[in-house]
Amino acid sequence: MTDEIRRGLAGVVVDETAISKVNPETNSLLYRGYPVQELAETQPFEAVAHLLWHGELPTGDELAALRAEERRHRPLAPDVKAIVDLTSLGAHPMDEVRTAVSALGADDLAGTGTVLDASGSHDDNLARSVRLFAALPAIVAYGQRRRRGLGPVHPRDDLDYAANFLWMTFGEEADPVVVSAFERSMILYAEHSFNASTFTARVVASTLSDLYSAVTAAIGALKGPLHGGANEAVMHVLREIGTPDEVGPWLDRALAEKRRIMGFGHRVYKNGDSRVPTMKHALVALAEHVGRPDVLALSDALEREFVARKGIHPNLDYPSGPAYDLMGFDTATFTPLFAAARVTGWTAHILEQQAANALIRPLSAYVGPDERHVPGSAGG
Ligand code: CMC
Fold first, then answer.
1. Nearest Cα residue to atom 32 of ligand 1
2. What residues pair up with 21 in beta bridges, in sequence order?
3. What are the strands of the beta sheet with 20-23, ordered from one edge?
4. What is the predicted pLDDT for the residue at 210?
5. Which of 77, 149, 238, 281 is least enclosed, having the fewest CB within 10 Å?
6. Looking at ligand 1, which atom is closest to the CA of residue 315?
7. What is the pLDDT of residues 112-122, one digit of tens each?
8. How far, in Å, is the centroid of ligand 1 from the Cα of 75?
9. Residues designated as active site
């Protein structure tokens, strides 16, 4: 055992995983051996979800079965809608999603006898994973609509996951360019080894708590701007800058104030994030589709200038923020979209943790006062 402290667990290998491989040398990311960009170019999101849970891409029958199950769990349950409706309209949508998932768990686990029964079997947890995968789009879509004073839109069985998600959000069928960009973003966001939210989920699962508790905790971890909240933060930054001409003076001020520039940098990738080119491609297609070259001009200008000054490269949140904006999502909905995608990775990791569990319980180096005693006590 070593007493060396690695703050933020930086560089610490905590456990093994067969779900994804992040290679900082080549800036590559593999899901179960497949390069993520290949999956994003060729597969529907449902097939990637199956891959993450089962280790192999689905056969035609397996994909059809998952799609049928996903459709079955799509509608927003009345109890969950009621809970969402009780959430303050001023709350951040991530708080709403966290609360809704917690409520789904309470509903699904009702009747569980004791804490000893809560973690459940592998099959129980696989079924719960599909349920969450299917339920989150309705929760996220309704959250955005509620903020706009609109009611929920019933899902459409003739549409697959990505197209139906957009349908439930906007109440109109999305153009194939938009569906394709959205689906790619979901695949790119789905999994990323022991990132902060996934590790959080594994910590909770390691206590033999239930899958919903682990996912609820992961949503809390994802909300922060150093993690999933960055896609929303990118949009605030781009709006604050305004035009490409303002990039230089804005950066002068931001760097003088030692601000973090959102959407840049990564704990593992130091020379670029392999997911960025695929998402950038989708962003370019979207900007052309909706006739907004100004969005690209601004994001390119900030990227050029920041990389030139600091050598810090964009991460996936940098192109996905403006892409979600062009799709018509409210800025506050961006991180819930990330959660809807990452729930596949979280649940795959929870299943993996449960299959070979060891309680995650690290040590700390105590730096507080030496032992002392309350005056008047036996030791005082
Ligand atoms: N803007 C300005 N400076 C930065 C940035 C940034 N975005 N990222 C890193 N740096 C600087 C940092 O100030 C530090 O400089 P110095 O050594 O002079 O103090 C140096 O680079 C190393 O930074 P670090 O914080 O030690 O590196 P880290 O590996 O802990 O940070 C990070 C990773 C993602 C927290 C950080 O890059 C960051 O805050 N980025 C902005 C937020 C963001 O985009 N988050 C999304 C991450 S990717 C998606 C996800 O996993 O959720």
1. 266
2. 30
3. 20-23, 28-31, 34-35
4. 96
5. 149
6. 48
7. 778 877 788 99
8. 39
9. 227, 266, 317
Dist CA 269 CA 264 (whole Å): 11
104 and 83 Cβ atoms separated by less than 8 Å: no
* CB distance 122 to 355 below 8 Å: yes
DSSP single-letter state for residue 191:
-
Q: Would you list the DSSP string of 11-41? A: T------SSEEEETTTTEEEETTEEHHHHHH
For a mutational test of ligand 1's pocket, the pick from 226, 257, 342, i.e. the residue with the most ligand atoms closer than 8 A to its C-beta, is 226
pLDDT tens by residue, 319-366:
999 999 999 999 999 999 999 999 999 999 999 999 999 999 999 999
pLDDT band at 8 (very low <50, low <70, confident <90, very high): very high
Cα–Cα distance measured from residue 41 to residue 357, given in angstroms and rounded to the nearest whole number? 34
Tokens representing residue 31 in the block:
């899901």
Q: What is the 259 CA–ligand 1 centroid distance (Å)?
A: 10
And the tokens for 308? 């030139």
Ligand 1, residues at Cβ distance < 6 Å: 195, 226-228, 230, 260-267, 312, 315-317
Distance (Å, rounded) from C-alpha 321 to C-alpha 261?
13
pLDDT of residue 268: 85
> What is the structure's pLDDT at 25?
85
Quote the CA–CA distance of 340 and 7 in Å, as a whole number. Answer: 29
